[in-house]
Amino acid sequence: MALRKPALDPRSIEALNRTGYPQPYASRVLPRSKRAVGDALGLTRIGINYSVLHPGKESSMRHWHTHEDEFVFVLEGEVVLRTEAGEQLLTAGMCAGFPAGTEDGHQLINRSSADAVYLEISNRDPADRALYTDPDVDLVYGPPHAGGRFRRRDGTPI
């Protein structure tokens, strides 16, 4: 039976395999699969991605957001959640939340031998900036009105 909006099967949406990260960071997250469920349903205030993280890949560099809350819900497989407090294993049915403005960098890592599937949910705030917490990741992501581009911590373009 085919679904009609407001319902849909996330797997019916084209999977995107791209990143805005420059090298050497891009190779740490790609390949990956993201399906923009929120966009497909016409949602404008929250973003929802149906994401597949392949073995050995990272969801992102460890970061936190100035104006956006983030929520992750694991649907299949397992990921390691890495934060300032250390690492925790999240398996299917588990979730994690990251309040806006909380300076606790987070990322997911798939150290298993199988794909991990999860939902990423966040509000969409045009003033948001992403700040990266690992000393070896020299990145800042500026809001769209400021060019929406990655820059080095000192402000120089990449």
Description:
The structure is a single chain. β11 and β12 form a beta hairpin. The protein is mainly β and 158 residues long. 5% of the residues lie in helices and 36% in strands. The chain has a single domain, classed as Jelly Rolls. The protein is built from two helices and twelve strands. The longest helix is centred in the N-terminal third of the chain and has 4 residues. The strands form three sheets. A five-stranded antiparallel sheet has the order 1-2-9-4-7. It starts with 25 loop residues before the first helix and ends in a 7-residue tail after the last strand.
**Overall radius of gyration:** 16 Å
Largest sheet: 5 strands, antiparallel
Helix-strand pattern? HEHEEEEEEEEEEE
User: Low-confidence spans: pLDDT under 50, at least 5 residues?
Assistant: none
Q: Structural class given helices, strands, pairing?
A: mainly beta
Span between termini: 48 Å
What percent of residues adopt helix (DSSP H or I)?
under 10%
> What sort of overall outline do the alpha carbons produce when their principal axes are compared?
globular
- Enumerate the strands of the largest sheet in spatial order, edge to edge or round the barrel: 1-2-9-4-7
Strand percentage, roughly? 35-45%
DSSP helix count? 2
Total domain modules: 1
pLDDT average, as an integer? Answer: 92
Report the CATH C-level class. Answer: Mainly Beta
CATH architecture: Sandwich
What is the quaternary state of this protein? Answer: single chain
